[in-house]
Amino acid sequence: MNHCLTLAALSVSLISPRASNVKAADRPNIVILLTDDQGTLDANCFGSKDLHTPNIDRLAKRGTRFTQSYSHTVCCPARAALLTGRHPQRGAVNSWMQSDMHATSGLNMKTDEVTLAEVLKKAGYRTALFGKWHLGAHKDHGPMKQGFDEFFGIRDGFIDNYNHFFLHREGFHDLYEGTTEVFKRDEFFPEIMVNRALTFLEQKRDEPFFLYVPFNIPHYPEQSLKEHQKFYANLPEPRRSYASMVTTTDAYIGDLLNKLDECNLTDNTIVLFLSDNGHSEEDYSIKINNHSSGYPKGHNYGANGGGGNTGKWIGRKGTFLEGGIRTPAIISYPPKLPKAAVRNQIVTAMDWFPTFLELCNVEKPDRKIDGHSALPVIRDPKAESAHKVLHYMWQEGWCVREGDWKLIGSNKPRKNGTLPLSLHNLADKSPEIRNHVAENPDLVKRLKRLHEKFEQDVFSKNNGPKVQRDPKRKLDL
Ligand SMILES: [Ca+2]
Hints:
Layout: H1 2-15, H2 17-21, E1 29-36, H3 54-61, E2 64-70, H4 75-84, H5 116-122, E3 126-132, E4 150-154, E5 165-166, E6 172-173, E7 176-177, E8 180-181, H6 189-203, E9 209-218, H7 226-229, H8 239-262, E10 269-275, H9 322-325, E11 326-332, E12 341-343, E13 347-348, H10 352-359, H11 375-379, E14 389-394, E15 397-402, E16 405-410, E17 421-425, H12 441-458
Parallel strand pairs: 1-9, 1-10, 2-12, 2-13, 3-4, 3-9
Antiparallel strand pairs: 2-11, 4-7, 5-6, 7-8, 10-11, 14-15, 15-16, 16-17
Helix pairs in contact: 3-8, 6-8
The structure holds calcium ion (CA).
């Protein structure tokens, strides 16, 4: 055993000569707190007035907050962008990923994608993921094939927090330690995943670490803790049930921030907080008898109609409108980055990969990275965003944004054979309500051409079919 450990240590030092040459202070730890379906303005520091989010607000005071941060329209592509620094399509993430580890078919993010965990692990970091993966559940894929030393949590997109079953269709149990299925019935999932993260922080406090904590909340089912429901007794639905989910999420973020403080790690740890997409307005109930979870037919588990606050913006999860893709984001690294700062320039989920590598003095992998380091923008509120044009795509739907203009289209024809296309302006008094297509034919043509070039670029390397649907999946959210 000792021999194996020695060999492992030797191989790490051989592949990461830089690791031994840099001082500990130049190798800060990284913690990513990724929330799930937390809407555009859904923390008080982002403009909501009716929420109780003391911990996210506390992070904003010790860090830099972004008002124009873009993740993606749904879970899978947001996670691919964050972990690879690239457009999700480069890793074949353009349709829902394999759901159940035991399934015999499904899509998975390509294993030759290089994740942040892989790069940091090679540089000597300890890496762990506690929470939700959602980039393909196949046993030969998954977190531990993509650079994470440890994984505990959900391989797919959501679970009931107490019985840990995925609830769509016939359902299946989804709780894993690596690729070993584990059973912890009646234990509240956010609590057990965060406890794992807290233990990791205590154990790894003396070595550089990358801790990725992708929460499965405030995503449905809306099972907030009772102690957080009391804040919202007078709030109307659907805001009430959603708001208490946000507060439960915030409380677990607080546990992690407290642990960093207790372990004296706050000054040497970069904390990134962001959401994967806008708020959900999905409603679901169990449609069959004898559901695998044990819940009866008719049991509701959706987002109760929504409840997110997008302010003047419109849209929700699953759309390319601002309310679908613009989410809260904060980065904190007290000794080196501005505190209580606000930045209005565009940043994207893909930008954190190169930003972290720059802050940690780790070389970028030799491949196309679509994100740009956010450090110029973080350090200077007047610096221009490196993103002149933004591209988003999910299944047949796409959008391209340049300046205040956004063209939203789809490659899937309507019943009459025409392709959906709408042009929006973010500077309109009521942004994105009006379709400006008719009066701007040249602009539409040019933006459409930009999107076509984007597709040629990201699908050029035999990434499989652009869109592959699970025939059992009726809804595209
Ligand atoms: Ca999500």
